[in-house]
Amino acid sequence: MMWRIAVVCLSLLAAGPSQAQEVIRLARIADIPDQYVGGEMLRAVYARLNIKLEFEDVPGKRALALSSAGEVDGEIQRIGTLSRDYPTLIQVTPAINYIEPAVFTTKLHFDVVGWNSIRDYSIGIVRGVGSSEAGTRGMARVTATTSLESMVKMLDADRFDVMVTDLFSGLVAVRKLNLEARIHPLSPPLERISIYHHLHERHRDLVPKVGKVIGQMEASGELARLRETLIKQVLSGM
After folding, report:
1. Where residue 1 falls among pLDDT bands split at 50, 70, 90?
2. HEC string for the chain
């Protein structure tokens, strides 16, 4: 994808003396633009610690299987309750990013007032995306798709009434498939969710160090500026 080009510039910025650098490999949910943004934000964080990041692009459920088993070193960003279900993954605080789950549709028009607004509709979500799974839990007609792009195509084909994904990623996917005239987000987003970097328990000693840098970059406004820059790069590269 064209928006992946941005990784080259940021990689060069993050690169220090390569022979001295430790390498951390993180699971990244494939083809989710917000995972790309969060990964590049973390790349800048880890550069402060002279640690190089690499990413393993896999589906959401596969990512959790790899990270919780320690086959990779952690997750870029997940919801704050992740450690309850995956106790080998330790949450790094403060939050690295946030997402705004939103409702996308082709034909419907209504004001969104939380998750109950969509309870009576057929709903598409991406399997392994914790915020979508939690928000739609107990709803009668939920279809879990294998990827964001396949979900957008299924909505376009009227396989369900609405789909749920984070607002930014949904806008990118719809634009990429040239479906902006047909698929639109409803307002406001369902909620805003803080999301956290997670490391496998074998990196327990690294957790406070990474958290300290995140906190410093958040306090200075650097994280927010970097997020804004990355989002603009992704959208302008479409």
Report:
1. low
2. CHHHHHHHHHHHHHCCCHHHCEEEEEEEECCCHHHHHHHHHHHHHHHCCCEEEEEEEECHHHHHHHHHCCCCCEEEEEECCHHHHCCCEEECCCCCEEECEEEEECCCCCCCCCHHHHCCCCEEEECCCHHHHHHCCCCCCEEEECCHHHHHHHHHCCCCCEEEEEHHHHHHHHHHCCCCCCCEECCCCCCCEEEEEEEEHHHHHHHHHHHHHHHHHHHCCHHHHHHHHHHHHHHHCC
